[in-house]
Q: What sequence folds into this?
C-alpha cells in the first residue's frame, strides 16, 4: 500500500512538472512554428480528418499536404500519426494541440526515465529529480522549440532500455520486452529505432563475449526470437516500404553532405548547454567514472562505455567527414546520438548517486536546486521563443523552404487559434519532398519542383474527398495542356473525365505530377490508391500480433 502511494505521488509530481513547463504557452497565448512544424501538422491533420470522416486512406494524403495524394504517414510511423491525429481532432485549435502534445511529451519523457531508474533500483530521492531534469534537456525540447520528431523517440527511449538491465544483471534478453521496445519505437520514429538498436548492440557486445559457450548460444537464440517477434509487430511498416519503394524511385529525406558541421561541438552546441547545468552532470559523470571505474558494478560500467561511444559519435571526435557520402548519411545529423547519450548519462549519474552512501543532505539540496533551476531556465527559454510570435513580421521560428500565403500576418496568426485547422495549413506552406516518386535523372532541386508544381499550383482547382477518393475539379476556358497538383505513384489510379490516365500515354514531371490535356468546360480528376489485396491481412496480422504480445507482455513484465 505504501509503495503504491509513493508511486502515485511520484507520478503526480511528474504531472505537475509537465503542466508547469507549458505555462509559458498559456501566459503568452502564442505558438512556436519551428522548422518541422508545418510538415508534421499536415500529416497529423490528414489522419485527424480521416478519423473524423471515417474515410480512411492508409497510403496517400487526401486531406493534408494540399490534398496532393503524396505518401508520408505510411512510411513515417503510421500508428503514431493516427494517435497524434486523434489528439489534433480532440483539440479545438492548433494552439491547444501544441500545448497538449508538449504536456504529453514532457510527462511521457519523465515517466519513461523514472521507470528505467526504478528498474535499476535507484531511489525516488534521485530518480524523481533526474526524471524531471530529463524533461528540460534538449532531447525533449527539440519538439517544443523546433518540432523535431526525434523528441518523441527520446521520450520513449528510456523505458525501451529496461530489457538491457536484465541482460546485464541476469545474462538474459527477454524476447517479448525487447521486441516490444524496438517495435514500439519503430512505429513512432524509424531513426530513433535505429539509435535504440545501436544501444542494444553496444550493451549486447559488452556482455556477450565474456560468457560461456552455453550462455552465448542462449543469448543468440533470444536475439533471434526477439527479431522474429519484432518483425511481426512491424509487419505493416515492412510491407509499406516494400510496396512503395519496390515500385517507385522514392525521394529519401534530406541527405546532409556536411554531417561534420552538425555535431554538439560544431553548429549544434545547444544540445550540450540546454539546460546549462547539463554540463555539470557531464562533469560529475566523467569525474566519478575515472575515480570509481574499478569499483563500479557491471551495469554502471556498460552504461558508461555505451554513453562514451554515443557522445563520441555526437561530436567531432568521430571523423564524420569521411562518412558524409556513405550509407550512414541517413543519420543526417550526428547530434542525434546525443539523445541516447543523455538517457545513459542520467542512468549512470543515478547509479553513481545511489551507490554513494555518503551523500550529505547539503549535496542532495544541490540536486534539488539544479532541478528547479533547469525547470526555470526551460520555462524562460520557451518564453523567449514564444515572444517571436508577437513580432509583426518574421514570427516563424523556421522559414527555410517556407512561404506565407497571405499579406495579413494577423489573419495568419489567428488561424492557429481557430477551430478550422485547415486555414493555418493554407496560409503557411512548406516545401518538403520526402517520399515523393522522382525522376532520379532530373537534377533540379526537388524542393523547388514541389514548390512550383504543388504549392504554387492550387488556385484554379477545387478538391474534395468522398468514399476514400480524392476529387479534383476545375473549369477549362479552352483545350490546353495543364499541370495538375497531384502526385502519382505506381499504384495511384487517376481517372480524368471518366478516362484512366496511363503512365505510358501521359507526360509526368520530375516529381510525377501529371501533365494532361484539359477539355473546354468542367473537368474532373478522380484519384485513389489501388493497394494490393495483401494490405488488410498485413494490418490484421500486425494488430493481432500486438494483441497477443500484450497478453504475454503483461505476464513477463512482472516476472522478475
A:
Amino acid at each position: 500500500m505504501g509503495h503504491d502511494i509513493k508511486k502515485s505521488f511520484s507520478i503526480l509530481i511528474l504531472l505537475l512538472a509537465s503542466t508547469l513547463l507549458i505555462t509559458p504557452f498559456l501566459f503568452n497565448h502564442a505558438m512556436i512554428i519551428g522548422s518541422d512544424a508545418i510538415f508534421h501538422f499536415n500529416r497529423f491533420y490528414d489522419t485527424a480528418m480521416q478519423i473524423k470522416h471515417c474515410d480512411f486512406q492508409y497510403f496517400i494524403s487526401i486531406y493534408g499536404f494540399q490534398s496532393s495524394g503524396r505518401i508520408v504517414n505510411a512510411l513515417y510511423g503510421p500508428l503514431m500519426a493516427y494517435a497524434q491525429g486523434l489528439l489534433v481532432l480532440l483539440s479545438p485549435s492548433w494552439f491547444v494541440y501544441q500545448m497538449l502534445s508538449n504536456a504529453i511529451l514532457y510527462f511521457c519523457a519523465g515517466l519513461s526515465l523514472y521507470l528505467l531508474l526504478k528498474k535499476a533500483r535507484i531511489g525516488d530521492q534521485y530518480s524523481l529529480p533526474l526524471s524531471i531534469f530529463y524533461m528540460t534537456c534538449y532531447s525533449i525540447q527539440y519538439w517544443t522549440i523546433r518540432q523535431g520528431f526525434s523528441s518523441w523517440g527520446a521520450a520513449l527511449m528510456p523505458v525501451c532500455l529496461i530489457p538491457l538491465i536484465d541482460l546485464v544483471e541476469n545474462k538474459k534478453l527477454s524476447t517479448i520486452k525487447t521486441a516490444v521496445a524496438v517495435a514500439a519505437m519503430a512505429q513512432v520514429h524509424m531513426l530513433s529505432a535505429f539509435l535504440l538498436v545501436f544501444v542494444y548492440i553496444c550493451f549486447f557486445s559488452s556482455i556477450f563475449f565474456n560468457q560461456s559457450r552455453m550462455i552465448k548460444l542462449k543469448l543468440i537464440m533470444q536475439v533471434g526470437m526477439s527479431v522474429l517477434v519484432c518483425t511481426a509487430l512491424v509487419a505493416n511498416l515492412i510491407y509499406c516500404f516494400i510496396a512503395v519503394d519496390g515500385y517507385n524511385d522514392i525521394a529519401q529525406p534530406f541527405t546532409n553532405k556536411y554531417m561534420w558541421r552538425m555535431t554538439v561541438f560544431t553548429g549544434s552546441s545547444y544540445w550540450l548547454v540546454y539546460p546549462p547545468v547539463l554540463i555539470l552532470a557531464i562533469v560529475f559523470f566523467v569525474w566519478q567514472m575515472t575515480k570509481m571505474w574499478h569499483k563500479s558494478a557491471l551495469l554502471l560500467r556498460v552504461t558508461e562505455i555505451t554513453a562514451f561511444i554515443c557522445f563520441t559519435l555526437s561530436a567531432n571526435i568521430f571523423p564524420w567527414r569521411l562518412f558524409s557520402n556513405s550509407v550512414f548519411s541517413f543519420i543526417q545529423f550526428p547530434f542525434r546520438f546525443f539523445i541516447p547519450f543523455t538517457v545513459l548519462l542520467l542512468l549512470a549519474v543515478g547509479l553513481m548517486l545511489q551507490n554513494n552512501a555518503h551523500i550529505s543532505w547539503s549535496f542532495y539540496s544541490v540536486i534539488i536546486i539544479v532541478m528547479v533551476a533547469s525547470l526555470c531556465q526551460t520555462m524562460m527559454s520557451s518564453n523567449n521563443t514564444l515572444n517571436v510570435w508577437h513580432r509583426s513580421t518574421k514570427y516563424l521560428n523556421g522559414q527555410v523552404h517556407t512561404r506565407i500565403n497571405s499579406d495579413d500576418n494577423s489573419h495568419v496568426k489567428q488561424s492557429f487559434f481557430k477551430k478550422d485547422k485547415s486555414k493555418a495549413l493554407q496560409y503557411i506552406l512548406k516545401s518538403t519532398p520526402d517520399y515523393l516518386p522522382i525522376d532520379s535523372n532530373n537534377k533540379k532541386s526537388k524542393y523547388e519542383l514541389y514548390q512550383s508544381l504543388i504549392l504554387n499550383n492550387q488556385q484554379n482547382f477545387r478538391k474534395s474527398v468522398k468514399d476514400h477518393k480524392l476529387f479534383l475539379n476545375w473549369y477549362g476556358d479552352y483545350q490546353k495542356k495543364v499541370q495538375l497538383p497531384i502526385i502519382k505513384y505506381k499504384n495511384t489510379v487517376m481517372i480524368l473525365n471518366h478516362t484512366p490516365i496511363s503512365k505510358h500515354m501521359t507526360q509526368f514531371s520530375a516529381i510525377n505530377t501529371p501533365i494532361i490535356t484539359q477539355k473546354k468546360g468542367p473537368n474532373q480528376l478522380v484519384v485513389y490508391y489501388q493497394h494490393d489485396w495483401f494490405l488488410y491481412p498485413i494490418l490484421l496480422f500486425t494488430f493481432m500480433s500486438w494483441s497477443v504480445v500484450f497478453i504475454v507482455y503483461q505476464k513477463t513484465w512482472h516476472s522478475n
